[in-house]
Amino acid sequence: MSKKFWETLPQGSVVLEAGSSAKFKTGAWRSMRPKWTEENCIQCMFCWIYCPDMAVKVTAEGKRENFDYDYCKGCGICALECPGKKGKKAIVMEEEGK
Amino acid sequence: MTTKPLKLKELAKGEERFMHGHRMCAGCGAPIIVKQVLMATDYPIIASNATGCLEVSTCIQQYTAWKIPWIHSAFENAAATISGVEAMYKSLVKQGKIEDKQVKFIAFGGDGGTYDIGFQSLSGAMERGHDMMYICYDNGAYMNTGIQRSSATPFGANTTTCPAGDVIPGKPQQRKDLSRIMAAHGIPYVAQASPAHWMDLMKKVQKAFEIKGPKFMNIISPCNRGWRTRTDDAIMLSKLAVDTCYWPLYEIENGVTKITVKPKEKKPLADFLKPQGRFKHMFAPGNEWMLKQAQEYVDAQWERLLREDASGKDEAGEKV
Questions:
Q1: Do A21 and B65 lie within an 8 Å CB cutoff?
Q2: Distance between CA B245 and CA B248 in Å, rounded?
């Protein structure tokens, strides 16, 4: 989003574009990175419903895809809540940049 | 309008009305609550927001995380603002200037903007009987400005304005029970919910939207900065709050109390307090009385709720 100055901003602090925060990527906040292993995923969607950053991608058929690392802040809620399959978690946290 | 089925796979196909890219802290409970509330229904929604974490970090000049019409004006008047919006909408429909699309109105506020600063405008809006819902995400202090105590802060919590030390052992008072105060307004629907029990939360939102008149929901919202916990345990803690009966999930519909989720086994309150750094001093030698006092308060509240649930009667005014 280009920088605007007071003459060009809408009056009264109105934001004219709904959902424009999507243009602001928060992925760089992350120090821990969730890693998703599809084999261990039972598609329970808990990670999706509990994600505070709407950073779990879902297909049009409602199937879970990988994380949206542009927005994931790496809080780790998904990894903690992931039930996994046969004792193996589908989501684990790894240190970013390793 | 039919209420939509609450299946995660079905819900996941729907469009999000609360977008990523907002600047709430990593692991915050509030965006989870907002997304679950907005997801529960297909009705068009208009929201107002009290000043607070949610407001400042979801709407920063040029960037808004909301895909619904949203307004913020000041700290103390989220309820007054949305009641004005609702009254205007009703008037325009009556005048035939706009078509009635069954728009629903929500005010979101944190505990500071609800329990303390916005309390008067909230009470007024409830009394006037506007067709609106007020949702309070209760994280138990003014987290946005640096963890100052509010009247929602639980007994014993260490905050920057009631620091645990030699003089006082954290907050000396018990928290204000706002859900009951709202029920005492005689409004048709009051409920407490938790983001960990997403199904229960969404069912309550759906139910509330089918009721005409003022509704109030109080939802626990873990804050890892203020509660001094890890970033990944918001859901775990909101689950523990329910299991220890610190945050019972109930609804009061037209004066009839109903517990919606009864924990299978009531856990000791210490299970909920222990992971939180703000209660660390309560586990120090010599402070056993604090744990005891906190537990007794929770037990008394829970017993009262169980009695009300059994009799279907509100014990307002009666001694606990």
A1: yes
A2: 5
